[in-house]
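Risk register update: the risk of archive-format incompatibility is retired. Evidence:
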Amino acid sequence: MKVVKKQRNSKSCIICGMDNPSSVKAMFYEMENGELRGLFTFREEHQSYPGRVHGGMITAMLDELIGRALWIKEPESLAVTTTITVKYRRPMPIGVQLRGVARLTHDSSRGFVGIGEIYDSNGKLLAAAEGTYMRLPNETIGEFDIHEEMKYLIDDNITEIE
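Archived output:
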C-alpha cells in the first residue's frame, strides 16, 4: 500500500522521541486508504520477560498509533486518552521489525474512537486495542510548542508498506 505522507517524530516521546535514548523511535505513515501505519522495533530495554516486549510498552505503542490516526485529517490537534482496552494475542518479540495499523471508527467535535493493531512480519496479529480520546486545546495538555516538540521529519525513503 502506498504511503501518502510521513508524520513527524517528537523530541521526547517514549514511542517516537528522537532525543530520548529509551524511545522506540517508531516511524509513522499516512496511507492512501486513510489508515495510519507504523514501523518499529522494540529493544531489550522495552522487555518484560527475556525476549518479550513489556505489556505497558505494547499498550503505549497502540495508544500512539490510535492517537496519531487523528493527525491524518487534523495534523495539529491534540487529544488525551480516556480509555484504552488492549487484547494481547501472541508474545511480542524483541529485536524484529513490527508493523502497526490504526484508524478512527468514530469522530465527533469532542473526541474520537479508534482501533490499533500490531502485526509481525508474517502478518500475524500480536495485539489489538480500542481507545477513546478527548480533544483538548494544546495549551491545556501542556506548556510546549508543538512545532518545536514535533520537529523531526526523518527521510527514510519508504514509499510503500504492506
